[in-house]
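Intended use. Records like the one below are meant for learning the mapping from a protein sequence to its folded structure. Do not use them to infer anything beyond what is encoded.
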Amino acid sequence: MKVAVVGATGMVGSVMLKVLEERNFPLTELIPVASERSVGKNVTFKNEEYEIIGLEKAVSLKPEIAIFSAGGETSLEWAPKFAEAGTTVIDNSSAWRMNPENKLVIPEINAKLLTKTDKVIANPNCSTIQLLMALKPLHDTYGIKRVVVSTYQSITGTGVKAVQQLENEYAGENGEMAYPYPIHRNALPHCDVFQENGYTKEEMKLSNETKKILGDDSVNVTATAIRIPVVGGHSESVNIEFRKDFDEVEVRQLLADFPGITVQDNPSVNTYPMPIYAEGKDDVFVGRIRRDYSQPNTLNMWIVADNLRKGAATNAVQIAEYLLENKLV
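Structure written out for the chain above:
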């Protein structure tokens, strides 16, 4: 089982290597891949050094699985080349997500859709993954009509450049800017690029990807995505209108029973999800579960997850595990 990690030196790529190691993924050969400027450097995996190679050489090695986290342009150009060589690609960019020919997968929700013919599989957006993990068991039971979500997103979602900007601002130093404004002691209502409709690309991802993953175009999502000076993970304030009424005790139980969800919801002792606790963990944490008394059949809750792990690397590795367990590669 040869596994290529494309973008191995990036923020998500390095977490992918860590997750593959932690979960003891049964690979026989690791192929770390990065851009030309990183070729020849080394990465460490299971206490061994591996030399980084370029994309062309990686394709020629014909790995069974290639996990991509190298940006949309790289994925659009190189994922088909890997697929033609017989490799199954799991792509973390937005390049293939909304293509009707490509499955958009959260393993706990819709991995059963995958077949041997799926050679380029899309990993959803980080904010979508944690949202849908919490929505899925509730949608199955009560039917979701509408979701209003505000995200409070970690700078790690932007990448190394954003982390460096925050560190520079903490230290009072000038440096390269990832954002159009300071992020230290600030909140930017601007994640990704603005679209003609006034929403950002990130906000539209939450709407479009939700419909595709749930396989239900009747679920309406409206979003506001905000970048905050946090490192540990993304947080979401979510208001859900159901088609049927619900019981709060049952809601908590449905969430607690769903694989990959941890309910942290005891305000009397200040127990609720926070990025400082989610960082480095694979679960999605849900709390502040309460009825919205302003209209019928409506619930509020707060969702937090490490965007580099379940929001990216862990979800991709879980897809790879599913492919292996079900002999789809």
